[in-house]
Amino acid sequence: MMKFLQFTTAMILGLSAMHVFFDFVEDQFKTLIKPQATYAQFQKNFDTILGEIEEISERGNRTKDMKEIYPMCVAMKSAITVMKNNQKFKAEFDKDYKKFDTSYNDTLAYATNGLSDKKQACADGKKYYFAQ
Length: 132
Known about the structure:
Elements: H1 2-21, H2 24-27, H3 39-63, H4 69-85, H5 90-97, H6 104-116, H7 119-131
Helix pairs in contact: 3-4, 4-6, 4-7
C-alpha cells in the first residue's frame, strides 16, 4: 500500500510538472519548421502553418479570448522559422506566390516586422495562456 501511495504521489507531481516541460503550442510546429528536402514539402508545411494562423485568428476574433494571442505568436514565429530554414526554395516560392503579388523576401520581411512589433503582447499572451 505504501509503494502504491508513493507511486501515485510521484505520478501526480510528475503530471502537474509536465506543463513546464511540454508546450503543445510550440511542439505542434517542430517538424514543420525544419529544413525540408523538397519544395513541395516546404510548401505543404508553410501552408499548414498559414492555415493554423488563419484558424487561430478566426477563433480569436470570434471568442475575443486573450489566450489566443500566444498560439498566434507561436504560429507566426513558426512561419518565419520555416522560411528561414528553407531559403533554398526562394525561386520556387517567388514563382508560386507571384499570383499573390508577393515574394519570398517580402513575405519574410513583413512577417518578421509584424512579429517584432508584438514582442510584449506575445510575452503577455504566453503568461495569460499558461495561467489558465
